[in-house]
Amino acid sequence: MIVAPKIRGFICTTAHPTGCAKHVANQIAVVKNRGPITNAPKKVLVIGASTGYGLASRIATAFGGGAATIGVFFERGAEGERTATAGWYNTAAFEREAAAAGLYARSFNGDAFSDELKKTVVEAVKQDLGQVDCVVYSLASPRRQHPRSGEVFKSVLKPIGQTYSNKNLNTSNGQVNEVTIESANDEEIAHTIAVMGGEDWEMWMDALQEAGALAPGVRTLAYSYIGPSLTWPIYKNGTIGRAKEDLERAQRDIEAKLAPLGGKAWVSVNKALVTQASSAIPVVPLYISILYKAMKAAGNHEECAEQMDRLFRERLNSSTPAIDDAGRIRLDDWEMADDLQNLIADRWAKVTTENLGELADFAGYQESFHRLFGFGLAGVDYGAEVDVQVPIPSIKA
Predict the structure, then answer these.
(1) Coil, strand, or helix at residue 178?
(2) Using an 8 Å Cβ cutoff, are 230 and 166 in contact?
(3) Which run of H or of E encompasses 45?
(4) Could you give the C-alpha distances from 311 to 21, 56, 265, 315, in angstroms and in order?
(5) Among 117, 146, 338, 376, which is least packed by CB within 10 angstroms?
(6) pLDDT at position 105 over 70
(7) CB 154 within 8 A of CB 143
(8) pLDDT score of 122 more than 70
(9) DSSP, residue by residue, 226-256
(10) For residues 53 and 310, what is the distance between their CA atoms, to the nearest angstrom?
């Protein structure tokens, strides 16, 4: 069948298997072209491995460091003429590339929040790798069923304490408008922390450690974002921010538990990028569009592959990477440079629908969004028939 993008708001309901494969190959090329990564982990578990920073982490460690990788995610295969999700096609392409390079790669598709999948994955680690020396937690989900209580939590993207209004970009029509978001109540805050906070990361690390599946000196990472003050009411000081605070609480608790192994845990604060998660956050798409324009002009724009390559190549090549006062790795350092943020603040105050093309890179935002689903990749014939039934080699039908 011929696959075209079908976009509803911040979601694309189709994905192109050949385009996704090309997107993965391009990210692999970024890493390989920079040469081997020294002191890279060799046995890596990535939880949330099919898109965005999780996929890029798997690519960087495998193709930069030669790591054996296990990936965990929740994706959907193709059904009839309904395409699979982009993460499914990404993983299928990653495994094919890994096999061609002689790299071990195994994937698990299911509810990463469940005790059952944790047990299955831990058993696979023990059987296939013995132990892992790096665990990346990059899970993004709008809901979570607690494995012990059975309660279902749903996250919200809301400010706390007061209603919030600011400029917004309607990504469907390119209109700069204003969005107003009501304040979250206590239950919504608690639910968002339960979904997006650090409890599940800690549960994964506990399960691995109790099974003896963590190597001496193991390193574990979870990813976060802080951003500039103009986004703080909806992000840093909103419900997501509360969840990220809990992620940092979990980081401290995990590191204390890893002390007998000489292990370390970090939260890495990464750059704002177009991902399936970030595109859903009000205000953020306009900020990212302005950011892209400024960073591309400065010559230091990075996508997920470049960010994760820099993380493992330059920050984690030491047992004591540079951290901020709160103990976080700041991979957002280029984004948060004062001169760049001053420029963005000035453009934010001026941006309208009429001057959007001059002050922001909305076209670049759209291109990045389309690439998430395998569209707009050079060298792909989107007018050609394609088989949407693509298997992931390590996952049995």
Answers:
(1) strand
(2) yes
(3) strand 43-47
(4) 23, 11, 14, 5
(5) 338
(6) yes
(7) yes
(8) yes
(9) ---GGGTTTTTTSHHHHHHHHHHHHHHHHHH
(10) 12
**Count of C-beta atoms within a 10 Å radius of residue 212:** 12
Distances (CA, A) of 55 to 137, 166, 203, 390: 11, 32, 21, 18
For the stretch 281-300, pLDDT in tens is 888 899 999 999 999 999 99
CATH no. of 7-372:
3.40.50.720
pLDDT for residue 46: 98
Q: What are the residues whose beta carbons fall under 8 Å from the beta carbon of 98, sequence distance 6 or more?
A: 62, 69, 104, 105
Burial label for 383, CB within 10 Å (0-12, 13-18, 19+), is: exposed
Q: Which entry of 235, 287, 292, 365 is annotated as an active-site residue?
A: 235
Q: What is the pLDDT of residues 167-192, one digit of tens each?
A: 999 888 899 999 999 999 999 999 99
Taking phi first (over 0 means left), then psi (-120 to 50 degrees means alpha), and beta for anything else, what does residue 75 get? beta
Strands (E), 171-304: 175-181, 214-224, 264-269
Break the chain into its structural domains and give their ranges: 7-372
Q: Is the pLDDT of residue 51 over 70?
A: yes
Catalytic site residue 292?
A: no
Region of residue 150 (phi > 0: left; psi between -120 and 50: alpha; otherwise: beta) = left
Tell me if the pTM is above 0.85: yes
Question: Which of 284, 306, 309, 12 shows the shortest CA–CA distance to 157?
Answer: 284
How far, in Å, are 7, 21, 82, 141, 317 from residue 4 at the CA level?
10, 16, 12, 25, 42
